[in-house]
Design brief:
The protein is mostly helical and 242 residues long. Helix content is 76%, strand content 0%. It contains nine helices and no strands. The longest helix is centred in the middle third of the chain and has 33 residues, at 73-105.
Length: 242
């Protein structure tokens, strides 16, 4: 199947079309950080924000441009629960393999855990996402929503999906991390917007806002890749104009 635009341009245009939700994600994450919400409630709120953005991008691609019937809160909660389930499976699988590596080869320096984590994600985490990821666009389109159908789509297009996830969202998220480090070099940042002396750090807010915006683009890019994998497998029409 041929697409009218490359995935980078498509994600950019879809992100602009979903700019209200990009702003919601950035503002919501800043609020969560400012309030210091680190418990499960904050984690679920964060997951819901990012899921809303992903849902809207999927809907813009897979549904008619004037279709708003399915972009409601209840549908987004269902989408969030599916996203949470996939993320949980990825994390559990990666964590088990990471600790297996640590027990077999030893931890040595603390940096080795990071290396083990990356290896575990590449070996198990990413494949889990590739095999299950099209559950998400299928839920939005309300077609072939079963896990079995998603696994079949993932197996058929494993290299196509995995390769684009690595060179797309993977590179963008690495860029986001690099920006985070570079922007915060001048700041004595301790995971809060106020330093230990109670002085507000506007650069920390700016840095987080920039990184969240970059991550929003990565989310749109991921949604584009998964939606296109769904389209390729199920023969639905090409993406609608952003």
């Amino acid at each position: 199947m041929e697409f009218r635009r490359g995935m980078w341009a498509e994600a950019w245009l879809q992100g602009i079309s979903a700019r209200k939700f990009v702003a919601l994600v950035v503002f919501g994450e800043l609020l969560i950080e400012a309030m210091g919400i680190t418990e499960s409630g904050g984690s679920f709120a964060s997951m819901f924000l990012w899921s809303c953005l992903a849902y809207v991008v999927h809907a813009q691609i897979l549904l008619a441009p004037d279709s708003n019937a399915d972009t409601n809160g209840f549908r987004m909660i269902g989408f969030t629960m599916r996203s949470f389930g996939i993320a949980s499976l990825m994390l559990v699988a990666s964590a088990v393999l990471m600790f297996t590596f640590a027990s077999v080869f030893g931890t040595g320096q603390s940096e080795m855990l990071f290396v083990y984590g990356l290896a575990a994600f590449a070996i198990l985490g990413l494949p889990v996402f590739v095999l299950l990821g099209t559950v998400l666009p299928a839920f939005v389109a309300d077609r072939a929503r079963s896990v079995g159908a998603a696994v079949k789509r993932g197996k058929m297009q494993f290299g196509w999906i995995a390769g684009r996830l690595i060179i797309g969202p993977g590179v963008v998220l690495a860029l986001s991390l690099a920006l985070w480090i570079l922007l915060l070099i001048p700041v004595d940042y301790n995971d809060e917007f106020w330093n230990e002396d109670g002085v507000f750090q506007p650069l920390a807010v700016f840095a987080l806002s920039v990184c969240l915006t970059v991550q929003a683009y990565a989310t749109a890019l991921t949604a584009v890749i998964l939606s296109r994998a769904f389209l390729r497998a199920d023969g639905m029409p090409d993406t609608v104009p952003a």
